[in-house]
Specification:
Blueprint lengths: L2 H28 L3 H19 L9 H11 L1 H14 L6 H20 L5 H28 L6 H29 L5 H24 L2 H4 L9 H5 L6 H13 L9 H8 L3 H11 L5 H17 L9 H8 L4 H12 L3 H9 L1
Helix pairs in contact: 1-2, 1-8, 2-3, 2-4, 3-5, 4-6, 5-6, 6-7, 7-8, 14-15
Length: 348
């Protein structure tokens, strides 16, 4: 065994131990949060990848198959984790579950047909690498589209660098694997890239552990109400002005409203408004803050007999939702039922 082999095994063991420690802390302190549970699943998948790329994994055995399936799901689980954590989702979407299961089935097909080769194996291999690229790009998209609305300062500072580095690493893995499969690169290069995962893992865990517990996976955002919206909040003048502006001028009805626009309307620095919405009102991202008021207006309209003939899509658009899809997701997540079901129950 060479010096590199010894160092490689120690580093991989250290990475697995660190992931196990972080997973235990997540289970102990945040097991009820969806993002925390996805992080634990992602950590398990990463451990499988670290083992598989070490070169000591028993291939084409039941254990090897399980480890390969776990490693193959790492990119998909990372994407689901990014969606849940950065957007503070409390439920998995059907699309997310479907795509992850499809990726797992494709990985299974690749493992079962790898030795015999053929068309099925080739197609499965191509789809496998496309999945890796796709999930990496999707994770980057989650970072990019939600960066301005993130109200958690610590999370907002680290999100771009952290997720971009991990997603880029996933893409690098796919490139190296493709090159190795086509004999354009030695298989030892795969081990070297796999060893590089240790650096990413240490950086990832260190960054996550630096966050305050409340910022990591906080409680669900409160739901706006007429009572909350008219009461002073901890005697904070800006919070009072903000709530008064919200209920008086209804700026949330503007589907293009950003935190920069709202700060300009109040003639306040953007960073102060972020802190007030997060630390005083308890919201973790700007979209949740706006949607809480939009949903109150929608629910009032759905329960109003005078508006029983108004289409739900009209009510949603008037309240500030840009389209029906995001509205339906936000409503189901908040109420546990569809808007139509809510209207029927309110009428009964």
């Amino acid at each position: 065994m060479t010096v590199f082999d010894q160092f490689d095994l120690m580093a991989r063991g250290g990475a697995i131990a660190l992931l196990a420690l972080w997973s235990w802390l997540l289970i102990r302190d945040h097991r009820h949060a969806l993002a925390a549970r996805l992080a634990v699943a992602m950590n398990v998948a990463i451990c499988c990848y670290v083992i598989v790329t070490s070169g000591g994994c028993p291939e084409f055995t039941p254990v090897g198959l399980v480890l390969a399936l776990g490693a193959g799901s790492a990119a998909g689980l990372f994407w689901l984790f990014a969606r849940a954590w950065f957007n503070d989702h409390q439920k998995l979407s059907r699309l997310g579950i479907t795509l992850l299961l499809a990726a797992l089935l494709n990985t299974l097909a690749l493992q079962l047909t790898f030795q015999s080769g053929g068309v099925v194996s080739l197609i499965s291999a191509i789809l496998f690498y496309l999945n890796q690229f796709g999930f990496a790009l999707a994770a980057l998209w989650e970072v990019w589209r939600g960066r301005d609305g993130d109200l958690i300062e610590g999370r907002r500072r680290l999100r771009s660098a952290l997720v971009a580095s991990v997603a880029a690493y996933v893409a690098l893995i796919a490139v190296v694997e493709i090159s190795a499969q086509s004999d354009a690169m030695d298989r030892d290069a795969v081990r070297i890239v796999g060893a590089g995962a240790v650096i990413v893992i240490f950086g990832f865990c260190a960054a996550m552990m630096r966050l305050q517990q409340a910022d990591l996976f906080g409680p669900p955002a409160p739901v706006a109400s007429s009572a909350l919206a008219t009461q002073p909040v901890r005697d904070d003048p800006l919070a009072e002005r903000l709530l008064t502006h919200i209920v008086t001028n209804l700026p949330y009805r503007d589907e293009t409203l950003s935190i920069a626009k709202l700060a300009a309307q109040l003639d306040e620095p953007e960073y102060r408004l972020r802190r007030v919405i997060n630390q005083q009102l308890g919201y973790r991202n700007f979209a949740q803050f706006l949607n809480s008021y939009r949903l109150v207006e929608v629910k009032n309209a759905l329960a109003d007999p005078a508006q029983s003939d108004v289409p739900i899509v009209t009510i949603a658009l008037d309240a500030g939702f840009g389209s029906l899809g995001p509205f339906n997701r936000a409503f189901r997540e908040a109420e546990g039922m569809t808007p139509s079901e809510y209207r029927v129950r309110a009428a009964g």
